[in-house]
Amino acid sequence: MKINHLTSAEENLMKLFWKLDTFYLKDIMEQHPEPKPHQNTVSTYLKILVEKGYLSTEKEGRIFKYKTALPLEEYKKFILSELAAHFFNGSGKEIVDFLLSEDFLTEEDLQNSYNLKIELNTTKKKEPELEYAEEVLKIKKSKKGKEKKKKKKEQNKA
Questions:
Q1: If we measure between CA atoms, which residue out of 104, 138, 137, 100 comes closest to residue 119?
Q2: Phi-psi category of 33—alpha, beta or left, where left has phi over 0 and alpha has psi -120 to 50?
Q3: How far apart are the C-alpha atoms of 102 and 88, rounded to whole Å?
Q4: How far is it between the farthest Cα atoms of the chain?
Q5: What is the phi/psi pair of residue 47, to 5°?
Q6: Would you say 6 and 54 are in contact if contact means Cβ atoms under 8 Å apart?
Q7: Least confident window among 71-75, 79-83, 101-105
Q8: What is the average per-residue pLDDT within 120-146?
Q9: Which of 3, 54, 64, 151 might form a disulfide with 78, Cβ 3.0–4.6 angstroms?
Q10: pLDDT over 70 for what percent of the chain?
Q11: Residue 32, exposed/middle/buried by CB under 10 A (0-12, 13-18, 19+)?
């Protein structure tokens, strides 16, 4: 199943819906914190979220009963993979390195959570700009050296 992106307003409503799991429009209006949106606004969002596949409906007389169709865990996986793909080269390691460097996560958190004995390098790495430039220059120099040697060999043969 293809998961569609949510706007921030849709995501905020979905957080409430995931808590409720099954609900009616009146439940949302009761549960929504102040300032409460207009009922028509909520109805419009419900329709959109049904179209996007986040909610399913069941008609009960004249009203609809809504149920979350996409579990919160699936949405978390989707968001994390999008984040990884767009900002961390698809690398879980880069995400963990970032979380450690920004103090969102500590080595102790990792060790306690996974009962692992691991060594982490949390020192911030220097940008390899100069190293890269030196490598490029070495390549150019070595190519020039090879060309000179090749010309000398050709001259010696002649």
A1: 100
A2: beta
A3: 14
A4: 100
A5: -60, -45
A6: yes
A7: 101-105
A8: 53
A9: 3
A10: 71
A11: middle
Question: Each residue of 7-46: pLDDT tens digit?
Answer: 999 999 999 999 999 999 999 898 888 888 899 999 999 9
The mean per-residue pLDDT over the stretch 73-90 comes to: 92
Of 45, 80, 86, which is closest to residue 66 (Cα–Cα)? 45
Report which secondary-structure segment, H or E, holds 77: helix 72-87
C-alpha closest to that of 95 among 74, 75, 81? 81
Tokens for 122? 């949390």
For residue 59, give the 3-state DSSP assignment: strand
What values do phi and psi take at 65, rounded to 5?
-105, 130
Residue 35's SS3 state is coil
pLDDT at 44: 95
What gap in Å lies between CA 158 and CA 154, rounded to an integer?
Answer: 6
